[in-house]
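// run 5 | inverse folding | seed 20
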């Protein structure tokens, strides 16, 4: 494991040792960054040695993670991560950029990138002997925790808004989690889960809030490094990375920079819906002060009134010379169909990153010489209603050749 050496508050810089039990800073409530002992990682490991791992999951990066090997091999817990990266020249041409890659996180075991955070969380829960794990979720974080917990025989309790897409609620139930639907939004579910975790002593996975979630999510950055940055032609050129944001984070690239294994950060472009744009608004106002909004976007996975990790999300763009982009919900449908024509089925919160990239190209934020990577964060199979709205209706005909001819001549 990656020499876990404590935590540092992202607001005041206060440090805590490994035994600290709080989720956030006890002085100001700031989110905590996990600290790793970089010199000892660097002396024990090299990129080549990590790349030569035959492990087809995020556990290939165990040397850079603050947990030990969780066991449960040959279960879903051991298959999170190591998702495919596609190179898509014709979509790049349409967008007027040089190269486009899409990393398809819908290919994770429970079909969203939340599996990364939940897999590392279960490894941590095992270490600290916390057999009951809880999370608030718009759906995917809960499905991921429920799935990983099921694989490991842990008990998961999930608080989700009752408006979550039915497929996501079904996933929670099928995985055997205790599902509590809250007759309100994600933010209320979040507050209730934190209070309940405290009262009953459950281990709380909430995204951003628990520092180990960022440690899991950062493995996507390691894969982008291994699958692309380490072998790209013209490696000197910055990579422009587009990702949808509810809470956001860029810890993986910071680790690699601190280790001296990359020379510069990719430029990170966070994409939000205009109808859930709290981080965008803080970034646009040049502040780290996150003001709550009233989120109404149909991209349920990024529908958040008050991002709980907003400061680090703003910094992901400011510290990498990236930007935030807010686009109207209507543009998401075009993202779904464009990715679909490349063989990638994205849920709305995944497709919005592609739509945001198109807007950035139109506005000149990225240009014809740029290399771009878009992350599709989740599978479209989880929200078939939105998919049908994007793709339209199929034709229905009588089962006869004449009916077919009539259809073909229409
Ligand atoms: C949770 C989620 C997001 C937002 O991720 P954050 O880490 O909260 O920024 C985006 N897309 C999908 C599919 C998600 O499940
Ligand atoms: Zn602090």
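// decoded
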């Amino acid at each position: 494991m990656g020499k876990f050496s404590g935590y540092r508050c992202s607001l005041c810089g206060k440090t805590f040792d490994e035994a600290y039990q709080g989720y956030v800073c006890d002085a100001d409530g700031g989110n905590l960054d996990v600290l790793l002992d970089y010199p000892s990682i660097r002396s024990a490991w090299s990129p080549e040695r990590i790349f030569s791992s035959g492990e087809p999951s995020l556990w290939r990066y165990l040397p850079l993670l603050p947990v030990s090997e969780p066991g449960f091999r040959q279960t879903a817990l051991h298959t999170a991560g190591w998702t495919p990266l596609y190179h898509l020249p014709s979509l790049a041409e349409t967008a007027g950029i040089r190269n486009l890659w899409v990393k398809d996180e819908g290919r994770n075991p429970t079909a969203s990138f939340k599996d990364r955070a939940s897999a590392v969380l279960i490894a941590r829960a095992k270490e600290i002997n916390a057999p009951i794990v809880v999370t608030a979720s718009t759906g995917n974080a809960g499905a991921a925790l429920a799935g990983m917990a099921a694989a490991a025989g842990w008990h998961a309790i999930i608080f989700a808004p009752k408006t979550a897409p039915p497929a996501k609620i079904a996933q929670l139930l099928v995985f055997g989690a205790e599902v509590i639907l809250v007759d309100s939004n994600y933010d209320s579910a979040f507050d209730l889960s934190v209070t309940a975790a405290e009262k009953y002593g459950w281990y709380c996975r909430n995204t951003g809030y628990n520092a180990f979630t960022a440690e899991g999510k950062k493995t996507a950055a390691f894969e982008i490094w291994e699958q692309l940055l380490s072998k790209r032609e013209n490696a000197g050129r910055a990579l422009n990375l587009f990702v949808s944001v509810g809470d956001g984070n860029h810890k993986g690239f910071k680790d690699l920079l601190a280790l001296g294994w990359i020379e510069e950060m990719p430029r990170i472009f966070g994409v939000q819906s205009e109808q859930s744009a709290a981080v965008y608004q803080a970034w646009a106002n040049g502040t780290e002060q996150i003001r709550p909004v009233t989120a109404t976007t149909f991209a349920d996975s990024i529908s958040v009134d008050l991002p709980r990790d907003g400061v680090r999300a703003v910094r992901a763009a400011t510290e990498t010379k990236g930007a935030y982009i807010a686009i109207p919900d209507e543009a998401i449908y075009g993202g779904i169909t464009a990715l679909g024509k490349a063989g990638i089925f994205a849920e709305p919160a995944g497709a919005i990153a592609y739509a945001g990239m198109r807007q950035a190209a139109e506005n000149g934020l990225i240009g014809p010489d740029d290399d771009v990577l878009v992350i599709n964060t989740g599978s479209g199979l989880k929200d078939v209603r939105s998919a049908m709205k994007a793709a339209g209706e199929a034709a229905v005909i009588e089962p006869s050749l004449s009916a077919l001819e009539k259809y073909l001549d229409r």
